[in-house]
Structures are given as structure tokens and as C-alpha cells.
Write a structure and sequence with these properties.
The structure is a homodimer. Chain A contains five helices and five strands, in the order H-H-H-H-E-E-E-E-H-E. Residues about 1-5 of chain A have low confidence and may be disordered. The two termini of chain A are about 25 Å apart. Chain A is α+β, with helices and mostly antiparallel strands. The first copy, chain A, is about 35% helix and about 20% strand. Chain A has helices at about 10-15, 25-35, 40-50, 60-70, 115-120, and strands spanning about 75, 85, 95-100, 105-110, 125-140. Chains A and B meet through strand 4, helix 5 and strand 5 of A and strand 4, helix 5 and strand 5 of B. Chain A binds a DNA duplex through helix 2 and helix 4.
DNA sequence: GCCTGGAATTAGAATTATTCTAATTCTCAC
DNA sequence: GTGAGAATTAGAATAATTCTAATTCCAGGC
């Protein structure tokens, strides 16, 4: 009961550190995302948050998620036509979308890979972010999803 | 009046070559995508196709697009929460999404880049496709969008 | 040349994800 | 404690896509 993710004060600090005004809703949303890192959708997050805060509304979940993404506390990912998914991994990483199970795995990027990939851009292009998405089959029995 | 993209027979051939059964609707949809390579959405394609085939339905446009994507004749791209966009560029390429204008530019990939990027995958991961999306500012006055 | 079956097309309804609106409540600075 | 601005809420609205059921098309066998 005392990891950095399970108490009000710590969550509040994380938000403030990123200039996201702390509110109970934002804290719970963030907590839920940190707790189960399975790239949940807004709906899934809504369901999980309702467990501890039954009065929250879906619109608020969307608002909180936008605030968290803006503050850089979580990342959002999109796969094809599916709903947006959220991810608390702040290290530079790519996503691997397992076509068989539909699950998503984080792939850590080696130092410098993003910089290197950016060098393929012609002059005049200035990328503020790069996203790499793999699609395919992943061997079973790994932790992340 | 005689590029490879403007006549029935050539389009029909392209479809057959990829095992996509040729139909008038599929041919027109493909033609439209080849003609104006601005990464249109299904709605935009629908509007353009209606010019020459007023009876086509939006559902058919979606069906045709799916068939073309399956056959590998066009690629689909998704940016954040926006609608799916379609692209006839079959060379390996990344996408650059200009945040200022909302336009999309193809970025040719140097030989071997994709293979190299795939090497960051841990053992057990087998990627059938890799997608690279840049987001940022592009210098004005370029052809593609 | 006609018939038949499977695929494609159509219009419109249905679904899903997300955003908007307007009213209420909260939070922080004073 | 108070007030101004921000956040939350419920529900309606919108946007993109998919589904459904009926119709049409077309290729191959006769």
C-alpha cells in the first residue's frame, strides 16, 4: 500500500509537476492507467474508475485523459479504426500490435533510434514527434500487453 | 487521355493483378485515389466518385476501399482521432502529418530502413508491417500533401 | 441465349467513439 | 470566506464506420 502510485498525495504531485491542475478525477484516472498498463480505451478506463468513483462521467474521463496527454503524463495511441488507447510509459517506445490477440506491447527504443529515423526527413520538415507501430504476431507468454 | 490511370481496361488489369475482382465501382474508386494523391478520407472519395458515378453509395466506397487495401493496391493511414485516409503510394514510405495545415506528406524510406527498425524487436516478435508517422511542421510550398 | 449461385451493391438503420452544451460544483488565490 | 475561472456532470449531438436485408450483377454450365 505504499508504492508511488496508490496514494492521493503522490498522484497530486505528479500532476502538479506537469502543470496539470490536480483534481480527484484526474488523480483516479491517472492511478487507473498506472495500475494496469494494458493500453485501455477511454471506455475501459471509465469502467475501472467507476469502481472507486461511481459518480464520474464519461465526458470527464475524456477531459482528464486530454489533460494528462497534454501534460505529457500519458501517451495516446491509435490502431487503425479502433478507439484511442492510453499508455503511461514515458520512455521513448514503439508499439507492437498483436493481430492475433489484439493486445499491445511496448517496445523500448534503443538510444538514438528516433534521432536516426528523423534523419530520413527531407530539409524543411521538422518533426515534433515520431510514432512507430508494428503489426504482427508476438510469441505468447509475455508480461506486457 | 492515355495515362495508365484513366481508362477502364488499365484499371481493371490492376485489380485483376492483385486478385481483386474488378467492378465499375472499384475501378472508379481506385481511379479517384490515383488521380489526386492527397490522402483523402472515405467521405472525400465518396464525393469525388459521385461526380462520375452518382448512384454509388457510401457503403460501397467503404467496401471498395477495404477490397483495395486487402489487395495491396492502396494503403490506409490513421492520424489520432481523425478518419481513415487512403494513399496509393506503394513504395515503402512513412507519413508526415503537418500540424499546421492538417495535410499529409509521404516520406520515402531509404533502402533497408524498415528492416533495420525491425531489429529493435525482441525475440519472438514477428512484424508483418511497420508504420512510421511523424508529426510536426513542414516547410511550405511542396507538391505532395 | 438462359439460368443459377455467389459476390457486389444499395439505402438506410444501427453502432461506436468522441465532442459539445449548459448547468452546477469545485479549486485556488486573495 | 469569497469570487473568478476551471472542472465536472448528464445528456444530447455529431462523425465515422459497420451492419442488414433486399436487389442487382456477372460468370459458368447447360
Amino acid at each position: 500500500m505504499s508504492t508511488t502510485t496508490d496514494n492521493h498525495a503522490a498522484l497530486s504531485e505528479q500532476l502538479k509537476a506537469r502543470d496539470v491542475r490536480p483534481t480527484p478525477q484526474r488523480e483516479v484516472v491517472l492511478k487507473v492507467i498506472l495500475e494496469k498498463r494494458d493500453h485501455p480505451t477511454a471506455d475501459e478506463i471509465f469502467a475501472r474508475v467507476k469502481a472507486s468513483m461511481p459518480t464520474i462521467s464519461l465526458a470527464t474521463v475524456y477531459n482528464c485523459l486530454d489533460a494528462l496527454v497534454q501534460g505529457g503524463l500519458v501517451r495516446s495511441v491509435n490502431f487503425e479504426r479502433g478507439p484511442t488507447r492510453y499508455c503511461p510509459n514515458l520512455h521513448p517506445h514503439a508499439h507492437f500490435h498483436d493481430e492475433a490477440t489484439g493486445s499491445t506491447h511496448d517496445i523500448d527504443l534503443p538510444e538514438g533510434l528516433l534521432t536516426q529515423v528523423k534523419t530520413i526527413l527531407p530539409a524543411g520538415y521538422d518533426a515534433s514527434s515520431v510514432e512507430i507501430i508494428f503489426r504482427g504476431k508476438a510469441a505468447p507468454a509475455h508480461g506486457t500487453n
